[in-house]
Amino acid sequence: TSLGSQAFYETDLRPALEHLLAARLAERHGINLYAEPSRARAAFCRTRAEEALWPWIDPAQAVPSERHASDEGGISRRTLARLVDRLEHL
């Protein structure tokens, strides 16, 4: 559903991916996503392609629920696959 709905991505999938990111960073890198956002970004983004993924998972860029009224398309299948792959390898 998040492929066709930005609102669904923001309210349902993004929080799950963000939680996974926070857990991976803490367990494997000793980084707190919320207390050390620059270190978290550096650990996640090793390449330009990964830099392009960061806005999709960066907690600071989450769209507030009141801005979901104009629900545009969600995350692309390719971007989601790349994001999940990066989280798996983090």
Could you state the order of secondary-structure elements as H and E? HHHH
Can you give the mean pLDDT?
89
Distance between the termini: 25 Å
Indicate the low-confidence ranges by residue numbers: none
Characterise this structure.
With 90 residues, the chain is mainly alpha-helical. It is 61% helix and 0% strand. The chain is built from 4 helices and no strands. Helix 3 packs across helix 4.
Question: Top keywords for this entry?
Answer:
globular; about 90 residues; mainly alpha; about 0% strand
Q: Summed up, what is this model?
A:
This protein has four helices and no strands. With 90 residues, it is mostly helical. Helix 3 packs across helix 4.
SSE layout:
Blueprint: H1 6-29, H2 37-44, H3 48-57, H4 77-89
Helix pairs in contact: 3-4
